[in-house]
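Inputs:
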Amino acid sequence: MTLWFVPYLVAAWLFGWGLYGIVSSRNLVHLVLCLALLQTATYVLLMGIGWRAGGVAPVLVGTHPGQSVVDPIVQALMLTDIVVEATVMALLLAMAVQLYERLGTVDPACMRVLRG
Amino acid sequence: MSFSAILPPIPVALPLLTAALLGFGGKHTPRRLADAIAIAVATLVTCATIYLAIEAAHHPIVYWFGGWKLRSGVPLGIAFVVDEAGAILASTGGLLTTLALLFSLHYFDSVGALFHALMLIFLAGVCGFCLTGDLFNLFVWFELMSAAAFGLCAYKAEEPAPLQGAINFAVTNTIGAFFIVVGLALLYGRTGALNLAELGRAIGPTPDLLVVIAFFSLTLAFLVKGAIVPFHFWLADAHAVAPTPVCVLFSGIMVELGIFGIVRVHSAIFAGVLPVPGGLRDVFLVAGGITAVLGAVMAFAQRHLKRLLAYSTASHMGIALSAWALASPKGLAGGIAYLVGHGLTKAALFLSAGLVLHTLRDVDEIKLRGRGRSHPLVGAILALAALGLAGAPWGTLLGDSLLDDLAMKQHLHGFVIISWFAGIVTAAAALRAAGRIFLGFGAREPEAPDVGGIEGEAPETAPSPRRVPVPMLLAPIAALICGTLWNLWPPLRQSIANAAGQLADHAGYLARVLRGAQAESIAPHLAPPSWVHAVIPPLAALALAFLTLARSRLPFAMRRRAAGKLNIFWRPLRRLHSGHVGDQVAWLTFGAALFAVAFALLYR
Amino acid sequence: MSDDRDELDPGARGRTILFFIGGVPLIGLLAAAMVQLPRSGAGHSLYGDLLVGAAVRERHVTDVVTAINFDYRGFDTLGEELILFASVMGVLLILRKSDEQPACDDREDERQTRRAPPTSEAVRALGLGMIGVTLTFGLYIITHGQLTPGGGFQGGVIVATAWVLLYLAGDARAYERATPKPVVEAFEAVGALAYALLGFAGLLAGLSFLANLLPLGPIATAHSGGTIALLSVATGREVAGGFVLLVTSFVEEALAERAGSS
C-alpha cells in the first residue's frame, strides 16, 4: 500500500476548505454546512487511523482468532463525534431560522447588531 | 467502602439526572418547584466537590467507571482523577451556579424548567471537565458545557442581537472543539491511548512535529474558550447578549476552564516532552500579555456595562495564561488563586450588572447617568466588586500578590507592569460606570470615543416595586464574602498550595493513576498576600476612574485635541471587532497559524 | 467578486487574504503532522486489541463497538446523550413561539414561491408504506446492537426517520397532530433518565457507576450483554425522541411562517 497517507491528506484538505467555506460564507445555512464539512475531516482522520490492512469490521461473528480487526475504538469515538455535530448543527440552524424571522436575511454581512 | 470511593461520579451524574427529570416535566413543572430542585442540586454538587477537594488534599482520587480498571497496565475504561485543582474549580462552578440560580428566582417566567435544566447540564459539564482523567471524556464534557451554553446564550431569541451573538459564539467554539478531536486523533494514532496518564507515559521523551501539533491542537480549543487574543471576539458578543445569570457562569467559570484545560492537558500529558520553560513560556507570555492589554483597553472604551465586563474578563484571562507560563509550582498556585478569585469577583460584578438592569431597566452607562441615585446599595456592591478586579481582598489579591512576587524573582518586570495595568484599567472602567450611573458624575458623552456595542438592552425581569428582591442582593454579596475567604483564609491557601503541587507533579500523577501509588506531591509554601497589592492598585483604579469622570471639567479645546489623537487609535480597533462571524473565523485561522508555526519552530 | 458584494461587505477581501495567510501554513502543518502517524492500515493500538479480545469473552457481546459505547466507555455515552438532550432543549428554547411580529416583511414573494406543492399520491402511498418497515427496522437495530452493527444511536435515528416519513407522506398538520410535543418531550426525557438511573443502579449495588448488574446471557441472544441492551434501548428512546422533537420544532416554525404569510 503505497498510498497510505491519502486519508490523512484528505482530512487536512477537508479541514482547510471547511474553514474557507465558513470564512467566505454569505449564508448562514451554507456556513453550517461548511462547519459539517470541517468536521468530516475529523471522521476521515479517525477512520484512517483505525483502519487495519485486511481487517474485518469489529463484529466478531464467525471470525477466527488471530483475524485482523479494524480498531473499534475510533469507531466508537466517531459515533460520539457525529452526535456532537448533529446537535450543534440543529442549534445553529434554529438560530438561523429565528434570525431570518427577525432580520429577513441570513447573510452574516448584513448582521450589524454587535460591533466594537 | 469509604465515602470518597463513591462520590466522584455524583457531581456529574446528579445534575444530569435532575435535568432529565426536569425535562420530563417540561413546561408543566411548577416554577417554584423547579427553582427549589435546581438550587438544592447545585448546592449538593458544591458540597460534594468541596468534600472531594478535602479528600484529594494529599493525593488524587482515582475512580474507574463501570469498574473497568487497568489490564496489562492499560486502562480499559474511563477514569475520573479527582485532584485538588479540579475539585476546587468544580466547586467554584457549583457555587456560582447556585448563586446564579438564586439570582434568577425572579427571572424567566415563560419556559418553565428548560432554563433550570440547561443550567444543571452546564454544571455537569463543568464538573466532568474538571474531574476527568481521559482525553476523549474531556472532549465530551467540554462539548456538553458548550451545547448548554449555546442554548442559554440565545435565550432572548426574540431579538436579533442574542441570535447573532450566539451564532458567533457557537461557530468559533465548535471549530475550537474540532481541534481537540484532531489533537486526540493524532495522539491516539501515535500511542493508542486515551487516558491522560497513559498518554503521558506513552508519548515518549522526544518531541517531534506530531507531538507538537497535537499539543497545539488541544491547546487551541482551550485558547478559544479562554478568549485569548486573537480568539477573543466571541466573548464580548456572547456576554453582551446572554441573560445576566448566564454571564455569571460564562465569565465566572467557563472561560477560566479554558485556561485550566491547557494546564490540565499539559501537566498530565506533555509536561515530560514539552516542558514549559523551553520555548512555550515565551509564546504564552506574549499571547497573555497582548490579551491583557487589549482586553483592558477595549473594556475601557465600552459604555455597555456587560460588554465592558466581558472585555475585562478577556484581559484577566491573559494574566492567568501568563501565570501558567511562569512555569513553577508557585506560578500554578498563583494562577489557581487568580482564576478562582477573578471568577468570584466577576460573578459579583455581573450580578450587580443584573441588578442595574433590574432596577434601572438598561445597562448603558451614558443613558443611565445619575439615574441610580435612589439605589445606593446596588451602586456600592458594583463599586466593591469592581475594586476586586484591581486586587481588593475579595478579588484577585492572592493571585496578584503571588504572581508579581514570582515574576519579580524571575526578572519579568514586563509581566508585573502589564498585570498592574490590566487590573487598574479594568477596575477603573467598571468604577467609572458605577460613578456615572449612581453618583451622576462625568459628562453626558463617553470619555473614550464609543466603540459601539448594541443599542441598549431589553430588561430581563418584570419591573418590581422600588425594593430590590432580597435573593438578588444576597447573591453578589455572597460572592464577595466567598472571595474574601478565598484570599485570606489560611486553610484555603494550603489547598491552593496542594493543588499546585499536584499539578506540577507529572510523574506523581502518572504513578497514581497507572500504579495506584500514594506518594504525596510537594506543595510550595505560599506567603500570605501582601497588603501593597490590596491597597495601591485599587486606589489607583479609583483615581483613574475619578480623573476620567472629571475630564469634562477640562477646557474644551484640550479635550477635542486629545479625542482626535485617540481616534487614530480607536478606529482600527473598532473595525477589527466587526461582529462578522467570517472575520472571527479568519482571525481564528490566522492566530492558529501563528501559534502552530511558533511551536513548530521552537521544537524543530 | 462583484461590486455589489464589496459594497455590502467591505471587509470581504481583507478577510479572505487574512484567511489564506493563516490557513495555508496551518493546514500544511496539520498535514505534515498527520503523515507522521503510523501508515494508515498498519497502525496498532494495544487498547483496541485488548477490547477486541475481551468483548466476546467477558461481555458476551459480538459487536465490539457497542460494547465500548455502552460498557467500557459507557460514561462517554451518558455525556453524549445529554449533549443531544441539551441541544434539543436549546432548540425548543430558541424556536419557542413569540407573539411578536417580524420586524420587516419584504419576504412576501419569496414565501409564495417557497410554498410546497401538494403531496403526490405516489409519494403518499410509498411513504405510508415505508413507515412500518422503517419503524420495525429501527427497533431491530436498537435491540440487536450488541450482536450486529447498530445500537441505540443508529436505531434511534432510524425510528425518528419513520416520523419524518409521516411528515413527507401526510401533511404538516397531520404530522403535528400525530406528535404532541409534551408527550415526545416526556418520551425523550425518560430515555435520558433511564440511562442515568442505570448508572446509579451500579452505585447502589455497591459497584461502580454504570457497572453491569445483570447476568450475561448466552452469546448471540438479545439479552446477552447484561445492561448493555437496556442502555441501548434507553439511548434509542432518547435519540428517537430528540430527533423527532427537533424535526417537530422546525416544522412548527415553518407552519407558523406559512400562516404568517397567508
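Confidence is low (pLDDT under 50) at residues 99-113 of chain C. Flag for discussion at group meeting.
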